[in-house]
Specification:
By secondary structure, the protein is mainly beta. Helix content is about 15%, strand content about 60%. The longest helix is centred in the first third of the chain and has 22 residues.
């Protein structure tokens, strides 16, 4: 008897997984196309942290782009993260839409709250599959003297996403 491989609560392997993959790929392409049209040279950054998804505990790392405001204080910040650990690899493309809460604080601090539509690709010993997910996100940035930012972020999965992500990062301007 082999050891069962850990897997998130969501069922990733199914008869309609090709259709899910196609829908997820189209959604990701639309998001990337819209994001690239919004900004000429967005500030880019690096991110890393801890992911917990049911019995899976991982280290994740990746990058992000701050594409600017869609509306006053509302920004689109797409990011890509790779989670590794517990014999599972999770690749997540997030389309974060965040509201900067400027009413409650002054620079150099910049708290924000928002949500994210994500494409999650999960690779386990049992196979791999992809699914769309939804998360709530909140955090704060701190503007450094050199014009760059550091941030801390908490992400909570609402549907078909990792249950908890704690992330820190650095944005280059």
């Amino acid at each position: 008897m082999g050891r069962p491989s850990p897997a998130p609560a969501a069922t990733f392997i199914g008869k309609d997984s090709e259709m899910k993959r196609t829908v997820c790929l189209i959604a990701a392409l639309v998001l990337v196309t819209a994001a690239s049209a919004l900004a000429e040279r967005p500030p880019l950054g690096l991110r890393a942290g801890y992911t917990s998804w049911n019995s899976i505990h991982q280290f994740h790392f990746g990058g992000h782009a701050k594409l600017g405001d869609l509306f006053p204080n509302v920004a689109l910040i797409p990011n890509l993260e790779v989670g590794m650990g517990d014999n599972v690899t999770v690749i997540t493309a997030n389309g974060d839409l965040v509201y900067r809460v400027t009413e409650l604080t002054e620079a150099p601090w910049g708290p924000y709250v928002g949500g994210s539509l994500s494409l999650n690709i999960v690779d386990t010993d049992a196979g791999s599959d992809s699914d769309l997910g939804l998360s709530a996100v909140g955090g704060t940035t701190y503007l450094l003297d050199n014009g760059n930012e550091v941030f801390g972020e908490l992400r909570v999965g609402i549907m078909d996403s990792p249950g908890l992500k704690i992330t820190v990062g650095y944005t280059f301007f």
